[in-house]
Amino acid sequence: VAYAPTTTTRTAPRRPRDDDVNTLRLGLIGVGYWGPHYARLAAELGETQLVAACDISQDAIELIRTRYPGVRTSRDPADVIEANDVDAVIVSTPTSTHYTLSLAALEHGKHVLCEKPLAMTTGECDELIAAADRAGLVLSVGHTFIFNPGIRMMRELIADGEVGRVLYCHTIRTGLGPIRTDVNALWDLAPHDLSILFYLIDSNPVAALATGQAFLRKGFEDVAFLHVDFESGAMGAAHVSWLDPHKVRRVTVVGDRRMIVFDDVEPVEKVKVFDRGASYEATSDEGRGADFEYFKALIRDGDIYAPKVPGTEPLRVQLAHFADCCLHGAVPEADGASARRVVSLLETATASLRAGGMPMPLEPAPLGR
Ligand SMILES: NC(=O)c1ccc[n+]([C@@H]2O[C@H](COP(=O)([O-])OP(=O)(O)OC[C@H]3O[C@@H](n4cnc5c(N)ncnc54)[C@H](O)[C@@H]3O)[C@@H](O)[C@H]2O)c1
User: Fold this and answer.
1) How far apart are CA 25 and CA 34, in angstroms?
2) Which tens digit of pLDDT belongs to each residue from 113-172?
3) Is the shortest distance between the CB of 193 and ligand 1 below 6 Å?
4) How many CB atoms lie within 10 A of CB 333?
5) Edge-to-edge strands of the sheet including 205-213?
6) Is the CB of 102 under 6 A from ligand 1?
7) Which of 72, 100, 119, 273 has its CB 3.0 to 4.6 Å from that of 124, i.e. a possible disulfide?
8) Distance 64 CA to ligand 1 centre (A)
């Protein structure tokens, strides 16, 4: 359902902005599977208050009514977007609605936190970025994994030189469902993997390719394999599927010194550092600088350790950070530019997928998260 501006007068209670500048008054659009997590966190966090929620489904609205009787509910997004007592809008609806709802919210002077992917084209991302810039509003995207303490630890370990030069990063995001009807598995799942690749590999992507198959419904790939080449020579790869018996959420980084694995399904030891590697060494002094046959592969099979990862909920960190950006001017870590970068790569990957997996060069883009 597209956003349609209302013609009726809104009766939302007005509250002057400076009566409590330390509280971010939130409006939530979309209360399906993911939206209720935002509602819960908005109630738990000290700086946020959920004042209005909207979903086109009456059942979804009932959930808010029951759990949060003080929150205004509606089936019309305009009731959230145009409300005078809403400072920021969270868009947690299907991907195909993100652009229209986010643009309308920005045009009505609301900060926006939109779920991933921000939009369906880079052109739409550009329009949203421009609208936010024009109005001096925060535009942020739900790249939740860059707020995940395990992924943050991986980034620190890489920055500290623990893994050495990053050779490749491989992610798996598979399971059985949820099956989307508006986008394929690549657009639904890979935004997370791409945001992780961009967060961990400090280099520009230069080319991408993707393969995939639509087994359940024509035109909507259920499984995809995505490859990204980086300027540094590092390789990124992501396997996404909503048609797989195993729920896997794993990120592997292989460096020339050590290897790190993040396993989000693992209850305790989510990050493991493997003091493992392999190299080709000369078998003798005479062999150095000589032909390859004088070299032999050496495997280093060292210790494995699991650093303690804080148990903080990533979405809580993401929402608290968004509130900090809106209330205190912090710079968004998952901003419009990073959202555009992900969408741009998805567009290129889609072109490759439609061309049978042909590698495609990427437009140069400034480094971001
Ligand atoms: N960051 C994460 O880890 C994460 C996890 C799950 C989902 N998501 C994202 O969250 C979004 C929602 O996913 P979900 O799993 O909750 O989907 P869902 O289908 O369970 O829920 C979507 C809800 O939006 C409502 N809706 C649809 N169009 C609407 C409109 N125009 N106005 C108001 N309500 C509308 C539907 O009735 C439904 O209740 C998606 O963008 C998805 O990619 C992110």
Assistant:
1) 19
2) 999 999 999 999 999 999 999 999 999 999 999 999 999 999 999 999 999 999 999 999
3) no
4) 18
5) 295-305, 271-282, 259-263, 243-255, 166-176, 235-241, 223-230, 205-213, 360-361
6) no
7) 119
8) 15
